[in-house]
Design a protein that fits this description.
heterodimer; A: Cytochrome-c3 Hydrogenase, chain B; three-stranded antiparallel sheet; about 45% helix; B: about 190 residues; 2 domains; about 20% helix
Chain lengths: ~400, ~190
């Protein structure tokens, strides 16, 4: 075919009315880098506007609850670690406390203080990842590296204490696996001094107080308090909507009632209350408050008499027949364990209420009417970890 | 409110629909007639003294050993206004279990009930979107039931490699991949 035989280009009779304006279904994920794992979101879009969004989860389902029925109580711990792999200390702490409540085990104040130290260090590390990856989601790469650097220091402390950097198996039923090493207090104080003096101001300068960050997020993904409560949003996500609910204050465990700290709250300073910005603001303030708790706990530890951390660890965990629902404040929100025991060595049933799972259930409400680019900002601000959603 | 007062309030409103109660448990609960759960839940949320505006957790539990064999759905409630908690339970038979949905009362129940359906096969009547949530859509059976047995095959893949299989293979038996014998993927490699 020669060039002359080709159809000549049509005249510019482009008619905007005749455009095909159907809705388009867009599959975001499961390998999308901004979904923090393997989450698939089905978006029904009209141009750039999302008319409806439907999350599809379960790509990382590992039968945690079924595994629990086939191992004994201490055997659950390593599995619990692997749910929220970014904040593993919080998972095992919740399960240990649930079983202790059911079995009537009281641990010593020393163990409680050690647990608080570990939980708060983990909260700092987890929020570092949350805020760091979030900035990467919305297009700033450098803060991510800064925050991962600071998280590494916390992980070094964990490694020094129990040998593991991510999945610790540290909290046991009735105690913890390793006592704090000699010099831990000093190293932790060094870390905190650096954290208070450098990381937090740097974080505020670089990200939270950054005009671009504020303009980008202050009006995006607004969640009203009523919606948050109805969909069981918890932790920083709910506090971002201005509701002062923190289990460390409301239903204290591990002696949290004796520490002096503030509940971080979203203020809606730059836009409507409960936006993506507020949720991140809460995380940053929470890191500072965690540091306050840690200072007090380390002070207390110095004056405290060391007890054997294995003192109350039973040789064989005997749990009487019964059931308990125990919730604790994990870095991502209220982590609830519903444990049913029939008096045997294995739990009869373990159900986990994961804060990320419930945060995902409100997603379709928040996403409606958003731009596609804001979906990424919304997912990141809810701070989900797919390991915990899918369990 | 204390669990005892909550229970009395429920008795006062629903009478014999509240079947039994355990106030000594670590998390006190009341057992409610299955057909009444939506009304009880709605009352729990709207009554100003109870004000259970949050559903913390919804779990299914399977009790095949009880007489009669039953499944339970447990609702853990929390009031953000009054800071009290309580649990409701409903019983349902193991054959064709069905419970009215509470999705319209607490939004989060949508996901929890889907998970419960996924794992236990408890149908929530009136649920807007009762699909599997964690397991694949073509999964068969309900794994958290106590009589669950792992399937041997899933979509033509052998998913249950067992010690017996290893023994059979060592004994020289040709074990196929799935119900059909496919050519091994490395067929081009010369056999010795």
């Amino acid at each position: 075919m020669s060039a002359s035989e080709l159809t000549p280009p049509a005249a510019n009779d482009w008619d905007p009315e005749a455009l095909d304006t159907d809705e388009m279904i867009l599959q975001m994920g499961p390998q999308h880098p901004a979904t923090h794992g393997v989450l698939r979101v089905e978006l029904r879009t009209d141009g750039e506007v999302v008319n409806a969004a439907r999350p599809h989860i379960g790509y990382l389902h590992r039968c945690f609850e079924k595994h629990c029925e086939n191992v004994d109580y201490p055997g659950v711990m390593p599995y619990a670690d692997r749910m929220d792999y970014v904040a593993a200390m919080g998972n095992t702490l919740g399960f240990a406390l649930a079983v202790e409540k059911l079995a009537g085990i009281e641990v010593s104040p020393y163990v409680n203080t050690v647990r608080v130290i570990m939980a708060e260090l983990q909260r700092i590390a987890s929020h570092c990842v949350a805020v760091g990856t979030y900035t990467m989601d919305i297009g700033a790469f450098t803060p991510f590296l800064h925050l991962l650097r600071d998280r590494e220091k916390v992980l070094d402390l964990f490694e020094w204490t129990c040998g593991a950097r991510l999945l610790y198996n540290y909290n046991w039923v009735g105690g913890v696996s390793h006592d704090l090493p000699d010099g831990f207090g000093r190293a932790a104080r060094d870390l905190l001094r650096e954290f208070d003096a450098i990381t937090i101001p740097e974080l505020i300068d670089l990200i939270i107080g950054n005009k671009i960050f504020i303009k980008r997020l202050a009006g995006v993904g607004v969640c009203s308090p009523e919606l948050g409560i109805s969909y069981d949003l918890t932790g920083p996500n709910l506090r971002g909507s201005g509701i002062p609910r923190d289990l460390r204050k409301d239903a204290p465990y591990c002696g949290y009632e004796s520490y002096d700290f503030e509940v971080a709250l979203g203020e809606g300073r730059f836009g409507p209350l409960g936006s993506c910005f507020d949720r991140n603001w809460v995380r940053v303030v929470e890191m500072r408050e965690s540091s306050r708790i840690l200072h007090q706990a380390l002070d207390r530890l110095e004056k405290m008499e060391r007890t054997d951390v294995h003192e109350k660890v039973p040789k064989r965990v005997k749990v009487p027949k019964g059931e308990v629902y125990f919730r604790s404040e994990a870095p991502r929100g209220q982590l609830g364990y519903y444990v049913v025991s029939d008096g045997k060595a294995n739990p009869y049933r373990v159900k986990v209420k994961s804060p990320c799972f419930t945060a995902m259930s409100v997603f379709h409400h928040l996403a409606r009417g958003m731009m596609i680019a804001d979906i990424v900002a919304l997912i990141g601000s809810l701070d989900i970890v797919l390991g915990e959603i899918d369990r | 409110m204390e669990p005892k007062a909550i229970h009395e309030k429920l008795i006062g409103e629903f009478g014999d629909k509240v079947l039994s109660v355990d106030l000594e448990a670590a998390s006190p609960f009341a057992v409610v007639a299955t057909e009444a759960i939506a009304d009880v839940a709605s009352f729990c949320k709207d009554d100003p003294d109870l004000a259970f505006d949050n559903l913390m957790c919804l779990s299914g539990v399977d009790y095949p050993g009880e007489d009669p064999p039953r499944m339970e759905v447990v609702y853990h409630l929390l009031s953000y206004t009054h800071h009290h908690t309580f649990a409701l339970k409903v019983h349902t038979p193991r054959e064709n279990p069905a419970v009215p949905t509470v999705e319209g009362i607490w939004g989060v129940a949508n996901f929890h009930e889907r998970e419960c359906w996924d794992m236990f096969g408890i149908a929530f009547t009136g649920h807007s979107d009762l699909r599997r949530i964690l397991l694949p859509d073509d999964w068969e059976g309900f794994p958290l039931r106590k009589d669950w047995e792992d399937p041997e095959y899933y979509n033509g893949m052998h998913v249950k490699p067992t010690e017996q299989m290893a023994e059979r293979a060592l004994a020289g038996e040709q074990i196929g991949v799935g119900p059909f014998d496919f050519d091994p993927p490395n067929a081009h490699v010369e056999k010795e």
